[in-house]
Write the structure tokens for this entry.
Amino acid sequence: MRALFILPALLLIAAAPQSLVLSDEDGAFEDIARNSADAMNANCLACHSSAMVTHQPALTPMQWRETITKMKTVYKAPIEAADEPALIAWLTAHSARQKPD
Amino acid sequence: MISRRHLLSVLAASPAAAAPVDLGLGIASTRPLADPFEGKRAMIVQRSLPPLLETPLAAFDADSLAASTLTPTERFFVRWHYPFPTDIDPSAHRISVSGHVAKPLSLSLEDLARLPQTEVIAINQCAGNGRGLFAPRVPGAQWANGAMGNARWRGPRLRDVLALANPNTGALAVRASGLDAPPFEGAPAFAKSLALDHAMDDEVMLATHMNDVALPLIHGAPIRLVVPGWYSTYWVKMLDKLEILATPDDGYWMAKAYRAPATPHASVIPGASGFATRPVTAMVPRSVITNLAPGARQPWTQRLPVRGVAMGGDTHVAAVHISADDGRSWQPATLGPDHGRHSFRRFEAALELPRGAHVLRTRATNSRGESQAMEANWNPGGFYRGVSEAVPMELV
């Protein structure tokens, strides 16, 4: 590392306001056979877009249950207890569908 | 003359730029390259929001050892845990320095600009880089090996900022946090701590510039922590708070998350439990091939060029070796210039191989004599991947 002179021009650049437009390109969860994606779309997208889930490897129902528990207890996601069976069903169906490319 | 804009549009439209990348994850592995928002080009979108963008390894490639090792900012990986402001006015930004100090402060960027400025070329790498390659697989961001990048960072040293506040006797650690915030109340705000002696060293800095321009918003404008040699989890973005602690940080992001087994290579037998853990800290030696993807079918040539980038972890790269027989025999690669102990270092070799299937491996050794392991480590968090990666390919 080396000491540098302070260049006023650089300070001006650093001081310029910045803005950015982000968008959700991942899209909504979709039904898998008879497993409705309604509960997934209602409970999961407040914190992250869908690819966080759909890019996960095949996980066991127990692992998905642990993940939901972490979302509720650590991140305080207001997941309805009544929705959890539907979440597990969808997630398990998604894992079962994961096939080598 | 072809304008830069025209050239870029041609490149963007060319099949090569649009070709999907196979991340080698086995499932959900083949991904398109996308331009998810302004300032980012041809990235692997692991998640739109909050953004997780991975750099395809080909973005690190160059056909000359003398080429810059800096990752272009538009290809630099992105990782956010929580939503963050998408409008930043640096002139209004303040950084509070509080806690176990004689003189609590609120500093503007102008205040920081009056301090001595330093710069360093340093690799910023996610602690979970390569998590998607773990076997058995583990949950989390499913990165292949592109959650890393090398940049030139500039700004004041953290120690000079802390000195202004004059930490009290008994100060143990500095906890840094930024403007990103969890969506729901009660969730743990992202915050990471460094021991005070580490925070006061020559190298830890607050960067206002990345690759010679103002730090882009997506990389943590207007200022972020840079902790050379340590994983990116400590490089807190949009930094607005430094707390000097007199007791160990028991917050979620130090005490529960980003922890790995306290074992060699942070490795345990898959499924193990009850092992002691410690926070993820310094990086380990790594190397990646950048001109050949796993599964590549290449026309036979007498001398096959193999090249890539290596890192020493938290010290210099001393050597890189290349194998074409899955690690049974090795030959030294030629190294590019050393841009400092925290930088990528380029390597290349020309291999004389027969037609047929080959498994390439590269193995970096750092200046402490530590080499990449031949067997992959495993831990439930997917941290500290450093194995010599196998790249199966075929000469036809």
Residues 4-13 of chain B form the longest helix (10 residues). Chain B touches chain A through 63 residues (CB under 8 Å). The radius of gyration of chain B is 21 Å.
